[in-house]
Amino acid sequence: MKYSLTLAVLLATAMAVPAALAQGPGVALYKSKCEMCHGPDGKAATPMAKMMQVPSFEASGVKKKTDAALFDAIENGKGKMPAYKGKLNSKQIKDLVAYIRVLDKK
Ligand code: HEC
């Protein structure tokens, strides 16, 4: 009885972390500002993405890049990727980097 309670608490804690990220503030921002180019799953399979030749996050090698590098790409833009400096604050950009990490794991 005692053990199963501990297990339940452990499981709940383990599951709470990704769930909190998935529902974090980055989601709404991503949906409104990034999804049209990067797609809901980051795979860039939208018509807009095809037209603009947006690579998937996987193809961009986002996994191997540091948070600082992704932050910089969002803040200052990169190639056809627009810069969000002045449009998003650093907290918002950090939330987006966190959400991209979640997407890229799926
Ligand atoms: C107009 C289309 C467009 C929109 C909107 C857009 N992106 Fe991009 N994004 C791109 C393109 C194109 C690239 C590929 C840039 C390159 O590698 O030349 C890219 C690349 C990236 C990368 C990878 C950077 C790297 O270092 O390789 C990240 C991270 C990213 N975008 C995040 C975002 C976020 C977050 C938003 C929303 C705030 C966003 N993008 C909105 C088109 C877009």
SSE diagram, text form:
Elements: H1 2-22, H2 25-33, H3 35-38, H4 47-52, H5 67-76, H6 90-105
The structure holds heme C.
Question: Can you describe what's shown?
Answer:
The structure is a single chain. This protein has 106 residues and is mainly alpha-helical. It has one domain: Cytochrome Bc1 Complex, Chain D, domain 2 (Orthogonal Bundle). The protein contains six helices and no strands. The longest helix is centred in the first third of the chain and has 21 residues, at 2-22. The protein is globular. Bound molecules: heme C. Heme C is lined by residues 33-34, 36-38, 52, 54-55, 60, 62, 65, 69-70, 73-74, 78-82, 84, 96, 100.
Q: What is the count of DSSP helices, taking H or I runs of 4+ residues?
A: 6
What series of H and E elements makes up the topology?
A: HHHHHH
Choose one word for the global shape.
Answer: globular
What CATH calls the topology is: Cytochrome Bc1 Complex, Chain D, domain 2
Overall average pLDDT? 86
The biggest beta sheet is recorded as:
none
Helix content: 55-70%
Structural class: mainly alpha
CATH architecture title:
Orthogonal Bundle
Radius of gyration: 16 Å
CATH homologous superfamily label: Cytochrome c-like domain
Percent of sequence in beta strands: under 5%
Give a summary of the structure in a few sentences.
This protein has about 110 residues and is mainly alpha-helical. The chain is about 60% helix and about 0% strand.
Question: Which descriptors would you attach to this protein?
Answer:
106 residues; mainly alpha; Cytochrome Bc1 Complex, Chain D, domain 2; 6 helices; 62% helix; binds heme C
